[in-house]
Amino acid sequence: MTKQTMTPIYILSGFLGSGKTTLLQKLIAYWQEQGLLPAVIMNEVGDVNLDGLLVQEQVPMTEMLGGCICCSIRGDLSMEIAGLIQRDAPDVIVVEATGVANPMEILDGVTEAALYQKIELKGVITVVDAAHLLELYHNQKGKTFRLMQEQIRTASCLILNKTDRVRADEQELLASVVTRWNEYAPVLPAIRCDLEMSRVLESMGNVHAQPTSLAEGNERFDIAEDDNEGDVSSHAGTHHHTHEHVMVYTHYLNGPVDSAEFESFIANLPREVYRAKGVLTFSDTASRFLFQYAFREPDFLRIRPQGEVPDVVVFIGEHFSKGLIEAGMRALERS
Ligand SMILES: Nc1nc2c(ncn2[C@@H]2O[C@H](COP(=O)(O)OP(=O)(O)OP(=O)(O)O)[C@@H](O)[C@H]2O)c(=O)[nH]1
Predict the structure, then answer these.
(1) Is there a domain that residue 72 lies in?
(2) Domain membership flag for residue 285
(3) pLDDT score recorded for residue 75
(4) Mutate to test the pocket of ligand 1, among 102, 299, 315, 316 (most ligand atoms within 8 A of CB)
(5) Which of 78, 177, 232, 248, CA to CA, is 20 to 30 A from 65?
(6) Which residues form the CobW/HypB/UreG nucleotide-binding domain (predicted)?
(7) 286 and 254, same structural domain?
(8) What is the mean pLDDT of the chain?
(9) DSSP for residue 245
(10) Does residue 90 line the site of ligand 1, with CB under 6 A?
(11) Domain count across the chain
């Protein structure tokens, strides 16, 4: 069924591990409480979608794996949006971009979909890892710093997340820094994106409970027009990607591993690996775990995945030795 009303679309941006999926879960719960049907397009640079495990089964979800929507599979994005609208007729769509995506390029992909679907781009919510930004800000250089800066500049709403990992004075500094980079987007400090979702959405044009009224509010979407307009055209023209240096290693495990040994392996990962996630079975615990590692902080969540989910760990970073990681994982499997 093709919808006659506009389908609002939100883009979730933010560097790897900043808290996009954490926010996505809260947004979904918020919309469901209002009786709306949200749908999700998830994009991962790796070839397995582990974040999908955190989204309930009744939420229509499309996975775009094995590349970043902002470049290699950008053309597919508009097709996915069209397919989702025709198949599931959702009230709202969220596109969760890979943490290394350049939001300008995703905006391109989404607006392309507007050519043949009635969609309304509501804006870009960028989630920022406060501790990570603080470190990058002090160094003032590097590709990750520039990418994060770009993601902040493109935001229509900024969530300064993980404030539990910085001091109050540092949080204040970061708030003023991001406001300097993007004076249009409201800055909402948070821990685990724990905010009133209505506040987040209203700050950029809300999704109304009545789907018929969704058509209004288009004009409220602005992407820091004056200093970014030039960027839009330069991106479209030159296609320079800020993230071509990012690499992924996916390791499928052939059995359970010891939890303490795994934790110590993770604690000693090279700094070039800045994100990892996976599903693991430990030889010394009864249940399985969803494992997360973001900016040097590991996290384990007990899970009972539906259906067949292999034991796997995905490592994401820059110029790290895949051989070294593989050898480490093999050693864990043997012991
Ligand atoms: N300390 C701390 N950890 C957080 C906070 N928010 C999220 N996390 C943790 O950070 C890790 C990454 O969170 P995600 O929501 O998966 O991040 P993401 O941006 O979706 O990650 P990618 O999809 O890889 O880009 C998880 O282990 C979260 O539990 C926070 O405010 N403070």
Answers:
(1) yes
(2) yes
(3) 64
(4) 299
(5) 232
(6) 8-188
(7) yes
(8) 81
(9) T
(10) no
(11) 2
Report whether residue 191 contacts ligand 1, using a CB cutoff of 6 Å: yes
Inter-residue contact 189 to 163 (CB < 8 Å): yes
DSSP letter for each residue of 144-180: HHHHHHHHHHT-SEEEEE-GGGS-HHHHHHHHHHHHH
Of 211, 238, 265, the residue that ends a domain is 238
CB-count burial class (<10 Å; 0-12, 13-18, 19+) for 6: buried
Using one digit for the tens of pLDDT, what is the confidence trace for 214-249? 233 333 333 333 333 333 333 333 334 455 567 788
* 165 Cβ below 6 A of ligand 1: yes
For position 157, what pLDDT does the model report? 93
The CATH number of the domain holding residue 44 is 3.40.50.300
Instruction: Give the residue numbers spanning the domain of 291.
Output: 246-334
Q: Whose CA is nearest to atom 12 of ligand 1?
A: 17
Which amino acid type is present at position 55?
Answer: V
* 99 within ligand 1 shell (Cβ under 6 A): yes
Query: Residue 62: which pLDDT band, with cuts at 50, 70 and 90?
Result: confident
4 vs 318: which has the higher pLDDT: 318
Find out whether 171 and 121 touch, Cβ atoms under 8 Å: no
Q: How far is the CA of 192 from the centre of ligand 1 (A)?
A: 7
| Residue 151 in contact with ligand 1 by CB distance below 6 A | no
Question: Which numbered atom of ligand 1 lies nearest the CA of 23?
Answer: 15
14 & 157 share domain? yes
* Beta-bridge partner residues of 157: 125
Does some domain include residue 1?
no
What DSSP designation does 8 have?
A: E
Protein residue with its CA nearest to atom 13 in ligand 1? 19
Predicted pLDDT of residue 243? 55
